[in-house]
Amino acid sequence: MANHKSSLKRIRQDKVKALHNHYYAKTMRNAVRKLRAITDKDEATKLYPCVQKMLDKLAKRNIIHKNKAANLKSSLTKYINKLG
Question: Do 31 and 50 contact (CB within 8 A), yes or no?
Answer without folding.
Answer: yes
